[in-house]
Design brief:
heterotetramer; A mainly alpha; B mainly alpha; C alpha/beta; D alpha/beta; A: mainly alpha; MetI-like fold; 0% strand; B: mainly alpha; 77% helix; globular
Amino acid sequence: MLVLKKFARDTSGMVGLVIVLATAVVAVLAPRLAPHPLDAYESHPLQRLQEPSRQFLLGTDNLGRDVLSRVILGARAALTIAVLVVAGAMVIGVPLGLVAGYHRGWVPEIIMRVTDVFLAVPQLILALALAQLLGPSLKNAMLALTLTYWPFFTRIVFAETRRIRVSVFVEALQGLNAGALRVMFFHILPNAAPPIIVRATIGMGFTILSAAVLGFLGMGATPPDPEWGLAISESRQYLPEAWWFAAFPGIAIFLVVFGFNLLGDGLRDVVDPRLRRSR
Amino acid sequence: MLRFFLRRVLLVLPVLFGLLVLTFVLVRIVPNDPSAALAGQNATPEQIVEIRAKYGFDQPLIVQFGIYLRQVVQADLGTSIQSGRPVARDILQRLPATLELTFAALLLGAGLGVPLGVLAAVRHNTWLDHGLRFFTVGGVAIASFWFAIMLQLFFSMQLDLLPLRGRLGTAMTPPAHLTGLFVLDSLLTGRFDAFRDALRHLALPAVTLSLGAMATITRFTRSGVLETMQKEYVLYEIAAGYPRELLIAVYVLRNSLVATITQIGLLFGALLAGAVVIESIYDWPGIGSYAVTAIFTSDYKAILAVTLLVGIVYSIVNILVDLIHGLIDPRVATEL
Amino acid sequence: MSDDLVLAVDGLKISIATDDGLACVLDHVDLRIPRGRIVGVVGESGCGKSTLVRAILGILPRAARVERGRILFGVEDLLRLSQRELTRRIRGKEISFIPQDPYLALNPVFTVGTQLLEIMRWHAGAGGNGDMGRRGHRARLVQLLRTVQIPDPEVALERYPHQFSGGQRQRLLIAGALACRPRLVIADEPTSALDVTTQLQILRLLRDLANRFGVSMLFVTHDFGVVAQLCDEVMVMYAGQSVETGQTAEILDRPRHPYTQMLIACHPDRARDLTGIPGTVASPLAPPPGCRFHPRCPSARAVCSTARPGAVVEAAGHEVSCVLYHGPVSHV
Amino acid sequence: MSERMILEVEGLETLLGGERRLLGRARPPVRAVAGVSLALRENEILGIVGESGCGKSTLGRTILGIQRETRGTIRLDGRAVSGLPPREARRARRDIQYLHQDAAAALDPWWSIGRSVEEALVITGVGPRAERAARIDRMLAAVGLEPALKRRYPHELSGGQLRRVTLARVLVLAPRIVILDEPTSGLDLSVQATVLRLIRELLAEFRLAYLFISHDLSVVRQMCDRVAIMYLGRIVELADTRRLFEAPAHPYTRLLLAAAPRLDPGQDLGDIPIHGEPPSPTAVPSGCAFRTRCPHGVALCAEALPMLEPVVDGHEVACHRWRDLAATPAVSTRPAP
């Protein structure tokens, strides 16, 4: 397939794909990959705040837990949040954008004004307020992120739909008397897919960052869950001595988000129907 | 142009109204009883009922919304639990600090981002371009709170080069209040000692905050310039014998800045959001750290006020962006 | 090169590297533009006329390579000049350009005056042509706009491109092309985006200006009808090769090359039975050897697939590249 | 050609746009079609000719039914099909189909050719699958395409092939009227000829009638039985093709004929009294819309709108002065092919 061939030539996109796939493997196999899976949750006062060593490659934290194991286990939380939040936001946002973009009248007007209101406040601040009011927990953090992320998809799908709606092939379909649902879901949605896919990919990275902030501020995961943001927050009072405690979860965040962004960037050029070729 | 401006302002009003509804709904739909929250943890049921009546929580929702609306219009955002003072006053006092930080970050981000973006576009597909691409993708992948901590760890704790936290050293008296931005005020009043100190305190937070903005601006400037270079009129300009330097510096850049400026408007929201976290790490006495404390103390009035304020500031910035857009591209103003 | 030629393209061959391989977009292109004449280049899409224009202006895409040939402008080979020299001395000054789509060719965020004056100022400064000064340029430009029949030239200079109609924009671009008193004007399908009544006025204007200013013109088009209306001479291109050159009337009345004959026969004014030309245009990625038209040519012979004949003079100024006109003994 | 009218349009008017937005500049609606009456006979090709912005495409879209008429009636086989909301209008006018100008853009880039053609049948409710497949194969053969093309995508096809695909998609629905919007635009001359021939062959084969929208007079002369000339939303002249080209009555028609490029060298471009461009449809001049560019305008032209009146049987013109001008020959007449 031409798409794959083109993508394979895009080095940075491939790097992104490798990082994302590796993260997924790590997340799935986390309990088996972690060198000290049991030590990840239990505290060992005797081995607290140890420097990286052969036994604990990335050192230990304030409760004597293995940082590497907790970083590995954190990947699972991060990916779960990313996938669920982005999927949830798409389920809400994409149909709204399609409806608002395809029709005219007061329904689209209302949808888009509500979207504007949500977009008028930075997502993180809205999510923080919502998470606080719902009560701090990982589930509520995910809910808050989902409920504040859908407008991004609505906006993109709306713009794409408006653009595609006036294209000649849609007019030709209307000339053949095709129904609105048929045109929207069979014709406009696939044509709008490239930017949605790119947005979703980059959105995963973005969501991981936002979730880490919520965790860092105590509005997300709760101790003793192995979550990267939370870990960095816990590490602050042991600085500058226990630098490893703060550094490695942050590097993990960077790597995964970097992977998603590279992948999204690479996909941008590739998801183009002109690369579809019959055989 | 005036009509264009008025229209933009008018279009923001429904958004602001929607924002009020949203914040109101947030408080009312959320399961927590605001009266209970207001009364504190040790309140008796009678106290809660009393508070409910006092704040009108026993009225129908629409009446409550009316009350809320009137309060907001009168800039009465309630009293903060944590400070015991009116939220509006707290916010007004802390706003300059946040503005100083975000403007500094924006200046840094745009000042470096635009030239870097042009450079990447002009050196399209060279190692420089690829390197900058790594930077732009990586720059938005770093968790800013972590980056802040790492900068503190290195520049303050290890090297002891820059202050760890705060806006001014404890020994330094703040400059006379003119704009509320210490860097500007100290310069205007000739307080160069305060200027130096304020700048040193500003350095790390501003760099932290600007990283994402710089990456995004670089990226958008690059793609904007590249896109403009593909345009028919650039081909014509080349064929008409415009020298390359003039072409890029004047003709291409002005066209591509349209995209960059729209992006800067959108970035302002990200900067405000970033400020929340970064201010709390650097103990920067602005809106952000205020919001974080409010979150920790469940000070919901303060939370809503900050949400509202950020929405308003963001809307104003975007009106400004539209105005600049209209000034750069004459078609925009006539079309709307 | 004789004195009365402004431009002479000799045996030009250009290929462009693409994702699918090397595309030989121009091969054996010869073109002569005598002083004060309007020469049309006509051909169907993909025949290489745009590449030819870009080669003369020195604005070929980066992936393009000139394999062979010369482009003589006066005594200079344009292909040997650096971009710097082309910018300073040639483009916009000696050779100017009128683009295809007037709706896209003007920068939307600058006034017309800024854009047109910039070219004049730049070339006056660098070319050593004597600085006329700001006011001088402006006066000359206003005069030019009047010549191309733009109403209210002073006001027009302060307006933005989107405030003009398509025909007026094309007039502005014509004024821009004449601003620095060029010796050669290259027009790339300047009327294909316009309606017939507007097109006629633009053609009439070009004809008048060519006479009045004595400039030579290269006029690229796909429409033989426009050639008939405007051009003195015409060169017919097929799949990157020049196949026939001559006086317009001569070619229209007595086309020699089979391709020219079939192309003219396709025109609705001449066509009786709507036959078209069978087959498809040769791909530049894998051009047929010899004469590129031979796979579609009804008169093709065995030799056509092995070698391409040089041009043969058939009548005064009428040259054909086809074995049919090489007499009984065909040569390579 | 029979004398039976398959399509009759009377006093058709279409307004476009004209939304009033908050504090925005008020935009009056554009009268893209301003009272058009015409009739199409069975098995006939009626040409609609005009410059860009004259409303010829809007006329086609209104007759098709995807643009709603503001006034006027449309009768299909004597049955009124106007005044309906869009989807019902399309259902009632199923016998009318439309061929878009840009064939490449008229096909969904994500769908293969076979699926795109089948889509037309699916929408109309033709089933089962085997029957659809058979009809598609027959139709592809009729327009001269290989069945193997069904698996290809639009960007892999040439302009001529795409034109045939869109023709097949429309004809597979067995329409009786096809509106052809600039069916040869963007095609090279050598391809144009073959497409035109196909269009003419299909007319006889499927017993169709065409509304042939074009700006190219040479093509129209070759293809059409009758021609209507449009200027700013109105038909200014309507006649048999031969009559129109040999004895044009309206000054605008005369100008168009004179301005069109043709293959005789050494024409004198200077003689043709032409200036300016058509006014914007948002600011149509009073009276006769053409008077601002007309070399024969008199005071009356600014005051009264000329109505179509018969010159001879089957030849109508909307001009106050056609009788005076009939004496003066048209600037230049074209030789017959």
